[in-house]
Amino acid sequence: MSRVTIIYCHPYTKSFNHAVLESVVANMKAGSTAFDLLDLHADGFQPYYDAEELRLYHSGGTHDPLVSRYLDALQHSDGLIVITPIWWNGVPGMLKGFVDKVMKEGEGLTHTVSSTGIHGCLKNLKHAYVLTTSTSPTWYFRLMLGNGIRRIFINKTLKQIGVKRGTWVNLGGISNSSTQKRLRHLDRIRSMRFTF
Fold first, then answer.
1. How does DSSP assign 134-174, residue by residue?
2. What is the pLDDT of residue 72?
3. Starting from the edge strand earliest in sequence, which strands make up the sheet with 34-39, in order?
4. Cβ-based neighbour number of residue 49 at 10 Å
5. Which residues contact 195 (CB under 8 A, 6 or more apart)?
6. How far apart are CA 123 and CA 27, in angstroms?
7. Are 131 and 21 in contact (CB under 8 A)?
8. What is the mean pLDDT of each run of 10 residues along the chain (196 residues)?
9. What pLDDT was estimated at residue 101?
10. 7 pairs with which residues across the strands?
11. For the chain: N or C, fewer Cβ within 10 A?
């Protein structure tokens, strides 16, 4: 049976992103898929290094219990689902801070560094799904902004920790979208076949 880590990055429980989270959870439960939910805002995650956390970075250590819990979830999952808005053409600072602090350097952690580059250790994460919403239309990100979510976040950052494949699903134009469009998107998420 697959186990999935869901990273949820939005502070407002009445947001559309929260409705996406609820749809993902319904999907996981319908498929009897075990999951760990990392709700960064609800958990009170501190998304920046303090001096002690940074001192411990290269040894793979941490003094933040959430970092330890989050890293353990990633190490024991078959796949990853990230739910986040796109703010100012990229991922929010909270999610960037998650990557900064949780992705620990060292053998058996998330990655190692050698003279030939960064090598991922989380090869257990077979597939990542990045589910986003944006004010700008999806075509704008793909054609005018260099497709950063796919090209950088999925194909570089996630790949560098060991994720083998990635899928990006965005609901663009969220601010001006109709209720019908939003409901269709949630239906799509609830019935989506996540493969890990």
1. -SS-HHHHHHTS--HIIIIIIIIIIHHTT--EEEEEEE-SG
2. 96
3. 34-39, 3-8, 79-85, 127-133, 165-171
4. 15
5. 79, 127
6. 24
7. no
8. 94 96 97 96 96 90 95 96 96 96 88 89 96 95 89 95 96 95 97 94
9. 94
10. 38, 82
11. N
C-alpha distances out from residue 76 to 32, 125, 127, 154, Å? 17, 9, 14, 20
Determine the pLDDT at residue 113. 87
Cβ-proximal residues to 48 (8 Å cutoff; 6+ apart), any chain = 97, 100, 101
Classify burial at 131, counting beta carbons within 10 Å of its beta carbon; exposed 0-12, middle 13-18, buried 19 or more: buried
- Measured CA to CA, the distance from residue 175 to residue 38 in angstroms comes to 26
d(C-alpha 170, C-alpha 172), whole Å: 6
Beta bridge partners of 120: 111
Query: What DSSP character marks residue 190?
Result: H
What gap in Å lies between CA 170 and CA 190, rounded to an integer?
15
